[in-house]
Each structure stands twice: as C-alpha cells, then as structure tokens.
Amino acid sequence: MRNPHAGQPFTTSDAEIAEALLDVSIPTLMLSLVHMSGDPSLIRGALRPAGLFLNEVQGYMSDDDKATARALALRVIGDYRDRGCPEPAPVGGDLLKEMMEWLVCEPVPEEYVPMVLEEMELDGVDRRAVGEGLDSEDFPVVVIGCGESGLLAGIRLLEAGIPFTIVEKNAGPGGTWYQNTYPGARVDVGNHFYCYSFEPTDQWTHFFAEQPELQAYFQRVMDDRGVGPHVRWQTEVLDATWDEGAATWAVRTRAADGTESTLHARAVISAVGQLDRPYVPPIPGQDSFTGNAFHSARWDHSVDLRGRRVGLIGAGASGFQIAPAIADDVEHLTVFQRTAQWMFPNPNYHAAVGPGVQWALRHLPFYGRWYRFLLFWPGCDKGLAAARVDPDYPDQRRAVSEINEITRVMFTEWITSQIGDDEDLAAKVVPDYPATGKRTLQDNGSWLKTLTRDDVDLVRTPIDHLTAEAVVTADGTHHVVDVVVYATGFRAGDLLWPMTVTGRDGRDLRRQWGERPVAHLGITVPGFPNFFCMYGPGTNLASGGSLIFHSECQMRYIAGCLEHLIIGGHRAMEPRQSVTDDWVRRSQDEMRTLVWAHPSIEHSFYKNSHGEVYTLSPWRLVDYWAWTRTPDLDDFVVD
User: Which of 41, 81, 233, 566 has its CA 20 to 30 A from that of 148?
Assistant: First the structure.
C-alpha cells in the first residue's frame, strides 16, 4: 500500500505545475524535491532559507532565489511525473535530521528528533494509535464532550475495540468550533498544524481557517471514522458518581427534552474544554438594558447589526476578531476594553490558501508533512524559553528579561507603525505590562485599522453601569448603544463546571479543587479511580504548540491506563497522592519562573484570585510528550 503522505500520482502539465509553484512554500518544496529525486545535494548548495519566524513560511528567501528554486523544481517534478510518480524510497535518519535543520535554519536537538518524526509520520505509521484487540465488552467507557479531544478519544477507543458512549451537550462535534459562531471567528494556530496528526487535509481554504470550516473538518473526521453512532447529542452530563463496590461510574445525563438517564461505565474520560462556559461579568443595570444583549459564544444571529450602534464589551481574543468583522456593517461601534493586548504580525492571518498549495499538498511527496513541521517548530518551546523571568532584570513591570524587552520593542514598533501620529490611540493600545504576559494575539493589521475608523471608538475607561439604552463609564459618559455584545471570555478556572463529580468516600471534585485544580500530568486525580481528564488542569498552552498535539499525548497515556486495567483484569487505578503532590509542587515551582505568574500581570484569566496560575502548562512540549508516552504504573495505586 502506498504511503498516504507520498502524494497522489498526477499528470499535471508543466504550465500548470509552474502556476502551482507560485503559491507554495519554497523551503518546504525543496525538501519534497529531495524525496522525489533522492538527491540531497539539492539542499547542500546556495539555495537555502535565510531565517525562521512563526508563520513565515518562505524562510526570508529572496525573490531571485525563489525563482531559481521554482525553475529547479519544475525540472525535478516533471521528471518525477514522467517516471509515473513512484513512491519515494525511505530517507535515512541522518539525512532526515539534516533536512529538519536545513528547513528551520538551526540545530534540532537530539531529544526532539523522535517526537518530530512521530509527529510527521513520514513512514505513514500513526504511532499514537491504540493497539487493536482489547475488545472488552465488559469495560464500557463514557466520554464527556465531543470537541477535538472527545472526538479523538472516540477514535482511539474505536480502534481498540473498547465500547464507549460520548455525551455531548451540543448538536454536533467540534466543541468551541461548534459553539463560537460569532463573525470573524477563526483559529490562531496554522491550520496545517491545527488538525490531527493522522488526519491531515488538503482542503483548507485559509491558512487560519474560520469557524465553519473548522467545524466541518471535525464533522468529516467523525463521519469518516465512524464515531457518530456512539454520540448522544444535545445531552448534558449532570453528575458522575463512583460506586466503590461495583468499581463503576454512574453518569447521570439530561437530554434536550428534559429526560434524565444514567450510564454505567468502568471509566470516564472528561473531554470538557477550559474555554467552554461563557462568563458574563455582573454589571449594575444589566437587566434594565432594553436592546439586544448576548455573549460572543452565544451569538444571536437573528439580530441584524446593520445600521445599529453596537457596544462590544471586552477586546481579548474574541473581541479582537469580532470588531473588524462587523465594523463595515454597524452604524457605530464602541469597544470597551479593560486591558490592552500584546499582538504580533502575521501576514497570513486572513490569507486564502491558493490552489497551488492545495495541489502540492495533494500530490508532492511529503510536502504536507514538512509544511506541518515548518509551522510546528517555531512554536515548539521557543515561546516558553522567552517567557522565563530573569529575577535580576531591572524594571520588571516593563519587561522580565532581556529577550522579553526585545519582544516588547518589536511588538510596540509594529503596533505604533499602524496608527501614525495618533498619540491618544497609542496610549490606549500599547500595553503597560511585560510582553506575552497574557494571551498574545496575532493579526495582519485588521484590528488597528478598525480602531482608526471614524465610526469606531475604543474606550478604556471602566464601565460603571448600564441603563436602558447606554453603557455608562466611570467618568459619567453615556455611550448610547442598540446592541451589547459581551466578549468577556469564559469560566476558565471553573473546570468541569457545572457538573458534579463524586469520587471515593464522597469526595466532590470541584470542592476539592476550589481555585487550585490539579491532576497528575493534568490527567488523573487521587481519590477518583478510572477518571481521566483531557485538557485538564495545567495543560492549557500559552507559549506555542497546539491543544490537538497535547490531546494526542493525553489520549495515548489514557489508552495505556485502560489497556493495563483491561488486560490485567484490574478493578481500578488512581494516581498516588505523593506522586500528584510532587507533580503539583514541581509545576508550581516552574510556573513561578514564568511571565504569566509574574506579579506585574494583573486581570489575567490565567490567574485565580490569589494570583496563582493552575490552568497553564509550564512544561516544554518535548517533556510532556515524553512523560505521556506510556503510564508509569509505579505512579498508581491499582486495585
């Protein structure tokens, strides 16, 4: 069977190939040529990328070098086509590492190579798949949620032959990409990396896809993988209770019609996202407002914004996308922002994927695999290193290290370059805290261009109250609006809310967690046997990577636990308290060295009321990948 990443054979004409090559990433193309020709000298000459930056996929190559590379590629691809597009011979390990380092313009440490090779699947083998043959009808599993992680859990359980039911409160898959349908909603991780490693697609129409296309991707994967029949749609989990005598979980659910029922399972996998339940801050007078009001994650599409005066409360990740998307339609837009956001340039943020890219992904051997690596590597642990606090660095309210100061200057110059000599606007949009200390946004200029419009106002004065027709700020100004949109985020710290999860000896999980939710590796919790979390405490990513990558790591670990329970005939397993305590201690010690936990960072949804960060991961991706490859059974109490 042909390697699925070796490309589909083609008979495309030279003229059509030449046209396609105008769209593609030239450094990625050069590595595909090595596969097609078997000639590594192609990357050992003068043609090479000049540098690396996140989302910059041309390697800063000159126009002349790119033209030379395209001419070379046309000859190599034409020869490959004329030979019948044979499946390329495997590339040896030394050459693969050379190709990696050539593409990213720097050494790739040895510890990263196994992870990268597994992620790229150049041999066509999905090494994160679950082994077949567990087939245990007496070990049913309940999965809570059918977003990207819950769907992944279903795929892997189906592979293993483990019976399961997914309970999903929405009417379709995708989680956040099903719920957040607001104008402008799109992903901020490059799509050719923000997808399952084993389910790439050449169908993306944008490099950073919008919500409908993302949701459609998860729908297609679900259908292709046969997970749909295992899902109970529009059904919410009310509570889950551990039965010690039977070694089972009783999971009580409520369907859309109000009907309640109980599922019994040997294990429960919580695939509930941290950014799931909308948060609307209490503002005096909210109930007196007579216009339309809704949260961005519950967008009311029946409300026509054309010609309306809109008040957008909040300008974090969601508001940042909404404002440019609606500015052309509304009569006037007033954006109420508590804190300015750091942002960095991404010229492809709204760019369409050209047909040449789609052709290359479909036909050129391993082009898609190397392109995935090119997107992955700049965001793999580099941001974490840049987030490290230097305790001796002066003026830490401005920057926490030398590299953080350099980042601040670069971001500031990019922001101010877009607003001319408008000093008032600059004072509002340049943050006064260290760079990357909160969720850092990316854009191609649309946000600041929106703020410079005559029919858009940015208000940084705190909101005091609402009246029947206005948002009133603390300075007494009445901002008259017809519609209020709350882009105010989610209950990120209230993990699993509003469910009640009751473990051994009547332990209430949310009461046990309080404002400090913890789980060993973010996955298992003492006192809650056979209960596993995906996207659990301490696994959100602020430095790079992708939650899908984390989910694949977590599900492989969970599958290893289930395999041990089933094959060993065990009743239950849970992490040792001492192991979990050690994990929490080390995680918090590490987190305190990073910018997100720094005292200068205020009003951050990452922090609890004590100024502590329990939701983010402080760890390198390569470490988390290594720790979750297989469960260490010495970490567990097994019954």
Answer: 566
